Amino acid sequence: MRKQNANISMAATLRKFEDLKNEKFNEEDQITVTSEEQIQVERSVQEIFRSFRLRCDIDSNLPKLLRWEHIQALKHWLTFLPPGYKSLDASRTWICYWILHSLSLLEVKLSDDLKDSLVDFLKRCQCSDGGFGGGPGQMAHTATTYAAVCALCIIGTQKAYDAINRDKLQQFLCDVKTEDGAFCMHRGGEIDIRGVYCALAVATLTNISTEKLFEGTAEWVISCQTYEGGFSGCPGLEAHGGYAFCGLASLLLLNKGHLCDVDALLRWIVNKQMKFEGGFQGRTNKLVDGCYSFWQGGAFPLIHSLLAQENKEPKWLLFDQGALQEYILICCQYPAGGLLDKPGRPRDIYHTCYALSGLSIAQHSIDGEKLILGSPENKLAKTHPIYNIGPDYVLRAGSYYSKLDIPGNEPSFL
Amino acid sequence: MGDSSSDDENAWVFYKDRPEWKDVDPVPQDDGNADIAAIRYTAKFKDVYDYFRAVLTKQEKSERALQLTKDAAELNPANYTVWQFRRDILKALNKDLYEELEYSQHIIDEHPKNYQVWHHRRVLVEWLKDASKELHLTELILNDDAKNYHAWQHRQWAIKTFNLFENELAYVDQLIQDDIRNNSAWNQRYFVINNTSGFTCEVLKSEIKYTLEKIKIAKENESAWNYLRGLLLHDKEGLSKNETVTNYCEELYSSGNRSPFLLAFLVDMCDEQVSQGGGDMRYTLERAEELCNSLANQYDKIRTKYWQYMAEKIKNKAEGKSEPSPPSDDS
Q1: Chain B contacts of A367, Cβ < 8 Å?
Q2: Which domain holds residue B281?
Q3: Stretch A329-336: mean pLDDT
Q4: Radius of gyration of chain B (CA)
Q5: How far apart are CA B289 and CA B267, in angstroms?
Q6: Is B265 inside a domain boundary?
Q7: The pTM is what?
Q8: Is-contact A84 A137, C-beta < 8 A?
Q9: How many domains does chain A have?
Q10: Which SUPFAM superfamilies match (chain B) (predicted)?
Q11: Is A383 a member of any domain?
């Protein structure tokens, strides 16, 4: 019944420029830092929308995804990063993941040689006591481990799958687990909800998950849901888009989504979409940022599946998919390739990955229906909303690792 | 992050040229041959990290290694391995941790949005069991950016661990006065009350009064409305039975105000009334529908799909159906 819609593609329409005037921030005579910054962003976005409208009159194909430019920039970054990137020297597995995932969204195939080189490099980032560091010789870290495992699953060759020492990886996760069910980012490192998400993502992808390993974890995650409805990095803190994604995706991986207050989460997250800009903010009364296109946007398919479990399945994803595509395509593309946070900011690999991931989420409705703003050529490949790698890569990793035994390490505090 | 930068290499003496390091063989990074995610390091960066890898491999916990970790951390404060090894050395050499605390303040000041420097600070405070400087430090950082997540995280941890709640509500008050839309401050307000008095009847009453006064000042301030909802989570009667709140909302609505957050609040009141049953169900339902329609079509158009979903959800609930209407493509 639903399958027949798999190839339906609908064109999203641009919001009317004249109507957008009514969507601007209402300062209510209370000038504060928050309102000043917000109004400044709206001004720069309005300027871009205005000049875009003029170009649109000449070229009806707009807005256009700068596919070629993004691919060139990404391929360049994969092997060459200028010295300014030294601040990401402890995040090089992230760089691999961000680029590989972006390229896969852009439907670029990698050569076998390149795949081998990537596996070779990622193996050098693997630690003898399990997990992956941000670069060769660095300590294992749950986030850089998530990035490395995702990158290897995208590469998807036998060599890539076999590169992961699953027994040691499980040992690493046991070592960083805390007594209250959370996970440290590294041995001796900080604790926050990213640790839980990264641990669950890699454990489920590589089939090393055990009940003991995640005992108490769902309860800890639930304690991070705030009065606003979103999730925070640690209990007590402010609801935040990145952490909310980690919390929600973790609960789904634990099959315990029903434990959270879905209605409150939904209420909070729909309100994070900016009525003028169309993109998402990360927190209440903060500014729009292209990366939340995924962190917030990606939560919608997850919420959708939770509501479906409760028999409250909505007819569609509950955010304005067209408006998000407007923000990403019109405001976040750097002309020479790569995407960015907001107009005036430099492009970078992180924002390229998450703005493209968000664009993919916005283009692909439920039931395989598509909603593409601009030319149909803007269409990106799908992403798996829990892991944020292509759904096929998740399936293939699953079928490979499911044939292997689950190692038997246990958290060390037990 | 810029695409280029240069470390100040003018006055810099490379480790490879330092006589006191003659006994150490630098360890180059084991990158393979393929140039994957290859950063073009400056000569200084490469030099410092070649020697850092050497001391890390040897686990040399010495004064000179301690100094080296400082150079490495300054080149890339996000290198968690460097900070972890620095802590190992501090412990092994039994160093003066107050000196390190001072250094960490300086580096937090330079990199206030970095996970590692805040974690370093936290470990030092844990070791010293002295959080006397933490409120001041976080205030300095929040002066520059009142929503810095790391600063709030550190502050909450210090307050909770060392019971420093005493003046926090006054601080929060000040921040909300400075910027009524500072959501981090509103969140901190909740944190303080939740961990001290709790939301007793009296506290609820005074907090509701406080919040409604703030809503009067800026009716489209989501932070205050969210806080109000947070308060009512603790009202056993729910969202729609608190007279102060319902009267305020109805008056505001009657006065012609159409803040989307006001309308949204009224929708949720209707939703709750429908769930609880009783009252004039038909009226409640009509009202919910009308509110959702005006939000979807006029006052909150970016959330049209959400308001349509809410209207339908409330309607289905009223009709006692567990089954929602079929997905769009079935019709």
Answers
A1: 327, 329
A2: 252-330
A3: 98
A4: 28
A5: 8
A6: yes
A7: 0.95
A8: no
A9: 1
A10: Protein prenylyltransferase (SSF48439)
A11: yes
